[in-house]
Amino acid sequence: MKLKRKLPARFYKMLPCAASLILLLTRPASALDYPSTILADNPLAYYRFEETNGSVAADSSASAAFPGTYVANGSYPLLGQPGIDSNSIALSASTGNNYVTVAYNSALNQPGPFSFEVWARPISSPTGGAYRCPIGNSPAFGTATQSGWYVYQTPDVPSELALVTPTGDIFISTTNYKLFNWYHIAGTYDGTNMSFYLNGALVGTQRASAYVANSVNNAGACVFGIGQRGDGYGNFDGGLDEAAFYTNALTAAQILNHYQIGTNSFRNALLAPTIATQPAPLTVYAGQVAQFSVLADGTAPLFYQWYNGSTLIHGATNSTYSFTCAPGDNGSSFTVVVSNQVNTVTSTPPATLTVSTGLLIDAPLTSITRNVGSSAAFEIVAEGALPLTYQWKNGDGSIITNATNATLWLSNVQLANNGSNYYVTIINPYTNLDSAPVTLTVQARPVTVPISHYASVVVADGPTAYWRLDETNGSTTATDAVGSFDGTYNASAYTASPGTFTYDAATGIPHETNGAIGVSGGAVITIPYALEINPTGAFSVDGWFNAATVSSGGNDYRTPFSSISNPYGQGPTGWLVYQTGGNNWSWWPYNGNYANIQLTDNDQVVANQWYYLGLVYDGTTFTFYVNGVAKASSTDSGFVPNGNVPLGFAANYSYNYTVTPGLPSYNGLGSADMVLGWRSDANPSIGAGFNPFAGIIDDVAVYNKALTAQQIQNHFLNSTRVAFTTAGNKLVLTWPTGTLQSATNVTGTYTNIIGATSPYTNTITGTQKYFRIELH
To answer: Global pTM?
Structure first.
């Protein structure tokens, strides 16, 4: 099996395997039957699901010692369905609890080698943050000890099949699967590594250093579950057959053999097409893509033909039909005819398309207060017929030049800007809409932080926020030296017992003597959400970090800094940096679900050693720097900053960054704090947040632009560079910060050039001259 891409740590993806399983009518006479093949490999427990009635799922292994129980809701499970030699069961996730459970037995909860397998036919994908589990042996997140394993369909878009351990060290997932197809799912654990297989092919292997087997004392009764995780969570929707558990790690050849014999062993039933999910009515804006879809079952192959009213749509022969709509499409109705060799069915009722040409403001502008010298940003969240354009205006209606994006950025605000009003006109081809005006209040800076040495290098590159973290013992405020976004030293933000701060800790920044802050025991610096430090588009974050401890593997993920929101458990937005269980620095941007990318430095973290970490996003590509070197780079077109609305989850996230009434949240906000020292969605009481960082942090800054590789290098070296161009007999020098000096010899003596400011023009003569920058 060819890997889609190599990802660090916990996430492995594969290209689609043979997704459509062809059910053969006959089996070659020389081939073994499926149950004989399985029994020859000595399963400890084996569930064939051949029953047509009753409540007991027989154990068909040699011992027959572990019978299961059909947990029924009156309608499901359905027994006696077509399957391998010859029956299977069908479960329904929407009708209440229905699954198979096997009572706790230590033999089914192996701490050492084991394998499992099951055939599964999913008929729907989970939505709304839910998961569907065809097989599992785990009490998961409600217990004192995270233990066991399970397989689930993820709620990502598209959904995937994943092998997971709740200890966090195993997450191996496939790419998207197809509904209404049978899949052979298998996993092995050899005592060191876990491997995941789909349709006889290896998906991925990971070291399971933190694996813990279930114990009867962990949750009272850690059952073996088929059609759920083991704790009654994650009801499966679809068909299941031929589940088995082994006390050894099956070989890849054995698993492939099980799959190949199984594909030739199905009892076929010619089924007419049925529509499981009808095309739904749509309301969209003009200029957007309208997509209708149908979910149908029946004997393959299925054929589709879409109609607009009674008119056949040429080329619309897939299960989905999409097009860019115009106002003239308003009121159109769409149906699809699904057919196979048995029969034909037409969707009903027709799905109506409503096309709007209007505009709607989802979140009004908010007035803000900022310090002198700070950046200030206003953002409008609007929807409507496309294309949308924006024009920002002053309160008197005058146009602000070049302010034509959804966000208005103001730099270096001054007291003269105090009381200024702003609003935005949103425009589409059919209408326009003005927002209500808002006010910018500008106040004198409460605390002035000296800008010298390393700080002058950072400030020269225009950060929107910068925390020097050199406060004196007992301070409660981490002052933002350039912006308006002070943090709070919080010893017990996420812990019952306070952690510890060590003020004025020794820094590791070259040529710098300013102090740093030590954190341990869950002590963190929390910085309230602000758009300026969570911008849409390009941004950078950098800082210095010294880990006091190295991880012990498994779930020992420590977070030195983060800006991540996960208010309803739907999946996070924003980003975080981990000191991973594999003991590597890793930057994880998120996109509103858990199908994120990870950018990992393969070099392991050394305890008590300083590291400069730089995160740079140019609007397309994420680049992770460690000690001035680009260690990893990747793209994620779906990235969503902390506090914004993830595509597909808008119903669960609030546009104005507050909790929708009645919906739970981790920390009471639709957006979340930026946090130095832990995940900003940390909540150990519900198993979130992994572990706090232990070590020293210094000089963290946020920028609303992508730093260049040279700027990153300058920050790591605590230096600056002189750039020069020539024009005739003139030499023009530019530099970001510091005092320009010159000498007639490379070794000096260098003296200040009085009054020299960047750019500086020097006339070229016959005398050699050398220049350098002195930082203060």
So the answer is: 0.74
